[in-house]
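Comment thread on ticket #2218

A.B. wrote:
> Attaching the input chain for the structure job we discussed in standup.
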Amino acid sequence: MDWQLMLDSLPRFLAGAWLSLKLIGISLVAGAVLSLPIAFARASRRRVLWMPAFAYTFCFRGTPLLVQLYLIYYGAGQFAWVHDSWLWPLLRQPFGCAVIAFAINTAAYQAEILRGGIMAVPVGEVEAARALGMSEWLILRKIVLPQALRLTLPAYGNEIILVVKSSSLASTITLLDITGVARSIVAESFAVYEAFLDAGAVYLILTFLITRAVGAAEGRLMRHLQREDLAKVPSLVPLGS
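C.D. wrote:
> Ran it. Output below, let me know if you need it in another format.
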């Protein structure tokens, strides 16, 4: 075990971690924005809405992310109209291709998570809001979305962790993320064990921090339920004491 090599490689892994965090953050935000209309379309009863949304989620959840990444990175540039489109500045760079691939992939998963939360919102609350004269947009903003996000927060946490681990695939298109740094160190020194042990440690730290952050957010959003549970616990103090 070459401990000195592992210590000397830490600055390179920190730079790779920063690139991975940028890729993960941008992809998750873009995927979240894209997942909102898809989730509401999936929850709709109209065929013209839910069928295209179902086809989207089925395709992107049913095919490997690596295949999608290769199709965008290697395949998009083969079409002349892509070179003339506004997407070409993104598609001609590995980072842009990775962001697009990760965003459309996680959007499919996030849409299904959000759809489950929307369907779990009690119908009676929505009907009561309509009876009070609230508009559909106000009901969506004040009742449906807050409850759906609160209910789906644990599943969102799992999706974030999956995106973190899936980000290692970005190294296959020449990006020097965490895994890309490990592969370059292996190519230079043939220290496979040391390089990927460092990479695994960085991924573990990222996963730990994300887990704690999601747990803290969940505890903050669920405080009202914790108070209700405490109120149901019978007092141990005898009456009249």
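A.B. wrote:
> Thanks. Noting for the ticket: Residues 3-232 form a domain with the MetI-like fold fold (CATH 1.10.3720.10).
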